[in-house]
Amino acid sequence: MKRQRTLVLLVDDDEGLSRLVAEVLAGEGYDTVCFSDAAGALEWLKEHKPELIISDIRLPGISGVKFCGLLKADLRFSHIPVLMLSALREERYKVDAFKAGAEDYVVKPFSSRELLARLEALLRRTYHNGGCRRELVSGGLALDLDAGQAAVAGRKLALLPKECALLTLFLKKRGHVLSFSTIREFVWGLESVTVRATIKVTVSRLRRKLGAYGTRIDAVPGAGYRWTDR
Predict the structure, then answer these.
(1) Looking at residue 64, what is its pLDDT?
(2) What CATH number corresponds to the domain at position 175?
(3) What pLDDT score does 132 carry?
(4) Contact indicator for 29, 5 with CB cutoff of 8 Å
(5) In 10 A of CB 110, how many CB atoms?
(6) Strands 155-156, 141-144: pairing kind
(7) pLDDT by residue, tens only, the chain of 230 residues
(8) Measuring CA to CA, which residue among 204, 206, 184, 205 is closest to residue 195?
(9) Final residue of a domain: which of 110, 131, 152?
(10) Looking at 107, 131, 155, which one is the last position of a domain?
(11) Pick from 108, 109, 138, 218: CA 20 to 30 A from residue 148's CA?
């Protein structure tokens, strides 16, 4: 079953192919944003979050494989499925793509039916998961990643976007000491000039809103913070 108005990011320097794919997807209820290079796509991703990314392997500047690797190394985007497109049929190119974290690999030329089937399968595996939503849980605290909503014992918490992003990072990396630079990059972005004082204030607000669960955020002197399930 396909979800309506799913946002897809398409990165391919073949403008004709991009237009064709966008038209096919639009006919099936998808919104598609197209870029001809990874640099432009990465800039766009600072403000947007698609539900699926389609990328050619051979891109000008940053290659499709490197682009995929950058996405999978970033906690903000690592869960987004990546489908690689390429005219390269050799096994080594497929291996490189999968090693970088790609979920699927489609060889050009391809039919619109095949592309749609692959895309829908990826979305179903990633987001539907048998009808369950993607959640991060710590005791009675649950964070719904699809809705961006946290709740304690079923009671919704009024978290600001930065607080929700911070909680997401803590729960995904529970038990790990997170440096101030790691927190800054994940919550505020790579280009942010956010200082430690701002991070400390945001952590303090999050602790208050989490109530008893706020004690699970440990300050590690001189290093940063760590989430501990207890």
Answers:
(1) 95
(2) 1.10.10.10
(3) 43
(4) yes
(5) 13
(6) unpaired
(7) 344 578 999 999 999 999 999 999 998 889 999 999 999 999 999 889 899 999 999 999 999 999 999 998 877 788 789 999 988 888 889 899 998 889 999 998 888 889 999 898 888 777 654 444 567 889 999 998 777 789 998 899 999 888 998 999 899 888 899 999 888 887 887 556 668 899 999 999 999 999 999 999 999 998 999 999 87
(8) 184
(9) 131
(10) 131
(11) 218
Q: What are the structure tokens assigned to 176, written together?
A: 């790990």
**Residue 24: half-sphere exposure toward Cβ, Cα within 13 Å:** 16
55: in domain: yes
Q: How many domains does the chain have?
A: 2
What angle do the packed helices 180-188 and 161-172 form, to 10 degrees?
Answer: 130
Assigned token pair, 217: 């955020």
* pTM, entire model: 0.60
| Predicted pLDDT of residue 157 | 93
Residue 1 lies in a domain: no
Burial zone of 199 (CB within 10 Å; 0-12 exposed, 13-18 middle, 19+ buried) = buried
Amino acid at 186: F
Tokens for 131, please give them.
């009808």
The Cβ of residue 72 has, within 10 Å, a number of other Cβ atoms equal to 17
Whole-number Å distance between alpha carbons of 42 and 73 = 13
Side-chain-side CA neighbours of 194 within 13 Å: the count stands at 20
| Structure-block tokens of residue 29 | 């209820």
